[in-house]
Write a structure and sequence with these properties.
The model has no long low-confidence stretch (mean pLDDT about 90). This protein has one domain (about 5-70, about 80-165): P-loop containing nucleotide triphosphate hydrolases (Rossmann fold, 3-Layer(aba) Sandwich). By secondary structure, the chain is of the alpha/beta class. It has helices at about 15-25, 35-45, 55-65, 80-95, 105-115, 125-130, 150-165; strands spanning about 5-10, 30-35, 70-75, 95-100, 145. The protein is built from seven helices and five strands. It is globular. The chain has a five-stranded parallel beta sheet with strand order 2-3-1-4-5, with helices on both faces. Keywords: Transferase.
Length: about 160
């Protein structure tokens, strides 16, 4: 059974970059990245609120890809109070699930954010409103990724963990 991989963390922590780096290690059509931002912001232009449609849509997209035998990486801030129940359902249905969460200080996220194109349009004050600190999921032990992990180290670990399943 192909695994579900969940990569969570605050804005600018490295989730999307990591998900894409892991996906590129697979042949085309073997690994899907389901990005919270792309579904919520680009597909349906919706606010991040409890009970919002994007939560169900992320779950449906992930289930569809898992049903086709693809490795599925769901990535995003995925705030525990809004997305936790959905992530638990996905994990239960996937059989094999791997969870990773970036745990960076706000200062570390600002440093990473400064190197992104979005830094020109998203000020630190807005970043602060999105920052929630460490938010562990109650139903699973996540691999906790701090600022000392390089992109290669994180993507190597996730790819190796997928291969060990």
């Amino acid at each position: 059974m192909t695994p579900l991989v969940v990569i969570r963390g605050n804005s600018a922590s490295g989730k999307s970059t990591t998900a894409i780096a892991v996906q590129r290690r697979f042949e085309q059509g073997q690994c899907a990245v389901v990005s919270q931002d792309l579904v919520r912001r680009n597909m349906i232009r919706e606010a991040d609120e409890p009970g919002a449609f994007n939560i169900d849509l992320i779950e449906e997209i992930a289930r569809s890809c898992l049903g086709r035998g693809m490795v599925v990486i769901v990535e995003g801030i995925l705030h525990v109070q809004r997305y936790g129940t959905m992530l638990e359902r996905l994990a239960d249905s996937a059989g094999t699930s791997l969870f990773y969460s970036f745990d960076l200080t706000f200062a570390q996220t600002l440093t990473r954010h400064a190197g992104r194109p979005q830094a020109a349009t998203i000020p630190p004050e807005q970043m602060a409103s999105w920052y929630h600190g460490w938010q562990p999921l109650p139903f699973v032990d996540e691999v906790r990724i701090d600022a000392s992990w390089t992109l290669d180290a994180v993507s190597d670990r996730i790819y190796r963990d997928i291969g060990d399943r």
